[in-house]
Write a structure and sequence with these properties.
Blueprint lengths: L2 E6 L3 H16 L3 E2 L8 E6 L4 H14 L10 E6 H6 L2 H5 L5 E3 L7 H14 L9 E3 L21 E5 L1 E2 L10 H5 L3 E2 L2 H13 L4 E5 L19 H10 L6 E5 L8 H9 L6 E3 L7 H6 L6 H14 L4 E8 L6 H14 L3 E6 L17 H24 L5 E9 L7 E5 L4 E4 L3 H4 L3 E10 L2 E10 L4 H10 L1
Parallel strand pairs: 1-2, 1-3, 3-4, 4-5, 5-6, 7-10, 10-11, 12-13, 13-14, 17-19
Antiparallel strand pairs: 8-9, 15-16, 15-18, 16-17, 18-19
């Protein structure tokens, strides 16, 4: 039975795409192996958001080339965003590469690998290579997701609801690697979520490049509700699904109906990852982010009013071309105003063929690093204070199973997406919502003890049930 080694770099969407590809291999009689020296096919799902991710993927694939000496018929492939953006160029950068598959061709990866394996077996020359480069756009590629839904691996799973992005922020390569935005039909997404629920999944995270713009070109509004809110309502009706998350939204799509959804859909968790990118209006304009910092802050305040206690996390870029000290201080001010529950801070990294890469006033790496470390210190102080404030409280936790770092204990997440470690029987508690009393905090992790009964219904759900009786 042939074996496949698959390594993933980048975002949650890449993780979901890799799960899709892995499942397709399994359905074709392959097995997935965590050991590259044991594989017949070596694949890498790549990311192009930052140069560091690209260089890491290139370094890893070049390193894997050593296994060709053991087996000249090995198939080496790169797929995903980096494959899409570089295309045939990758064959020059990685001489032993056999397959380059773009972001709209995940559903063709297995066929390509089988074809390459067959060609190598039939060849009498071990060094004969006939690489495949498949990076062309394919109409309807977003709907191929439904044809090979990944089998559930736990109680929480990702569900891709769309592909692509139309925003074209000046720093971002994603619109060029993922193509224009295309949404899947609501019925297909709901059916996937229902099948996952039947397999024991209790929490789904709806994925989209700009998730709250889902379906705006394909599907109509109904009763003033956007297609995204219609989708949230439909997934909410699935009995087995207990929690719904989504990532990542954009301020331009954060209309009143999305905010209002948090007042009547209790399965929506008390957490939103909401990328700000900068707190400076001047930099936001250069980034081609069509909102002002004041609008972003207003949405955050309205979210907190709609769902008291909600956790807001964000993405921030420091060191964007032309960013002055005054611009950076505006970003710090916004962080202090919102009091984010977490922030992922990135130094600006030029991406090939993006407008920002050609801008003047590119900042020195030293300045980027100084601002990166300064902002991280501010974020860490806020997060530490907020996490320690959880000690002594009781939180609803979805038990995900054994802890990654200590299999003798259990791990789960609060509605605000904080990790909690506690004791219990994984076989009995995995997938259950539990009330956990938080006893201590260490860095970003909470520790607690079960209060020995299922979690009480969320206040919004209790209210809905009362109204319905």
């Amino acid at each position: 039975m042939p074996k496949v080694y698959l390594r993933t770099f980048g975002c949650q969407m890449n993780e979901r795409d890799s799960e899709q590809v892995a499942q397709m291999f399994v359905e074709r009689g392959f097995t997935i192996t965590p050991q590259p020296d044991d594989a017949d096919v070596l694949l890498m799902n790549t990311c192009s958001v930052r140069d560091q991710a690209e260089q890491k993927a290139l370094g890893n694939m070049r390193h894997l080339g050593k296994f060709r000496k053991r087996n000249p018929r090995l198939v080496f492939g790169m797929m995903g965003c980096m494959a899409q953006s570089r295309g045939p160029q990758l064959l020059e950068e990685v001489p032993h590469l056999d397959l380059v598959a773009g972001t709209q061709k995940y559903h063709r990866v297995v066929d390509h690998c089988v074809e390459l394996m067959r060609a190598k077996e039939e060849s009498e020359m071990d060094d004969l290579r006939r690489p495949i480069v498949d990076v062309e756009e394919e109409e309807g590629s977003q709907n191929t997701i439904r044809d090979h839904v990944a089998k559930a691996h736990g109680v929480s799973e990702f569900v891709s609801i769309m592909q692509g992005c139309n925003m074209k922020c000046s720093f971002c390569i994603v619109p060029y690697t993922r193509g224009p935005e295309r949404g899947r039909p609501i019925a297909g997404i709901v059916e996937e979520c229902r099948r996952l629920a039947d397999q024991g999944v209790r929490e789904v995270t709806l994925l989209g490049q700009i998730v709250n713009l889902y379906g705006r070109h394909e599907f109509p509004k109904i009763d003033g509700k956007s297609p995204f809110v219609q989708l949230l309502e439909a997934v909410h009706e699935i009995d087995g699904i207990k929690r719904i998350r989504f990532t990542s939204p954009h301020p331009i799509g954060y209309k009143e109906d999305v905010i209002e959804a948090f007042t009547y859909l209790p399965k929506l968790v008390d957490h939103v990852h909401f990328p700000m990118q900068s707190g400076s209006d001047r930099i936001l304009k250069l980034m081609r982010r069509p909102y002002k910092a004041s609008k972003f802050l207003e949405i955050c305040e309205r979210m907190k009013a709609a769902r008291p206690g909600i956790a807001i996390t964000t993405d921030i870029i420091v060191g964007f071309p032309g960013e002055t000290e005054e611009d950076y201080l505006e970003t710090k001010k916004a962080v202090e105003t919102v009091q984010f529950d977490q922030a992922f801070v990135f130094r600006y990294s030029p991406r090939k063929d993006t407008p920002a890469a050609a801008m003047e006033d590119q900042l020195p790496e030293r300045v980027k690093e100084e601002r990166n470390q300064d902002l991280l210190a501010l974020v860490d102080s806020i997060v530490e204070r907020k996490n320690h404030a959880q000690v002594g409280t009781t939180q609803e936790v979805l038990c995900e199973g054994p802890s990654r770092y200590n299999a003798a204990r259990l791990s789960g997440r609060t509605r605000t997406n904080r990790i909690v470690i506690f004791d219990g029987d994984a076989g009995r508690l995995a997938g259950e919502l539990l009330d956990i009393h938080i006893t201590e905090c260490s860095g970003y992790t909470l520790y607690g003890a079960s209060v020995m009964h299922p979690a009480k219904a969320h206040p919004a759900l209790q209210m809905a049930e009362t109204v319905g009786t």
